[in-house]
Design a protein that fits this description.
Blueprint: E1 2-8, H1 22-41, E2 46-51, E3 54-56, E4 65-75, E5 79-88, E6 94-105, H2 123-127
Antiparallel strand pairs: 1-4, 2-6, 3-6, 4-5, 5-6
Length: 128
């Protein structure tokens, strides 16, 4: 699991209970999944197709620093399936898990397009 993104829970991110609003966290996750996919598939034209059950485990408080982790678990013909975990950066306590996020690669016509990828690639390896 790679944890690339960190977020600081600020007052404007809170719900009436004083904890992180779930919708804000899901928007952060969707953005991270998109960025991860764009880097892996080398195409900025992607969409979120499916998000499986979301397991909220703990509620971050104002001032907490959280980190969002993504891991590719399957490469389809025109899709990539990711797993997500969100945790507290300081305590490492798990906050949320999502078993499957399916992102689809699109062509210029806006339709699914085969990406030809079969495994994780790192930018540093593409440059060599």
């Amino acid at each position: 699991m790679n944890f690339h993104t960190r977020k600081w829970v600020k007052p404007e991110d809170l719900n009436p209970n004083g904890t992180l609003f779930g919708g804000t966290l899901l928007a952060w996750i969707d953005e991270e999944a998109a960025l991860y996919t764009v880097v892996q598939l080398e195409n900025k034209h992607i969409v979120t197709k499916f998000i499986s059950e979301i397991n909220f485990i703990d509620a971050p408080q104002q001032g907490d620093i959280i980190e969002i982790g993504m891991e590719a678990i399957h490469f389809g013909k025109s899709s990539i399936t990711l797993r997500c975990e969100v945790r507290n950066k300081i305590t490492r306590k798990e906050i949320l898990t999502i078993d499957k996020i399916v992102m689809v690669n699109l062509g210029a016509d806006g339709l699914p397009k085969p990406h030809g990828k079969t495994k994780i690639e790192f930018v540093k390896d593409r440059l060599n």
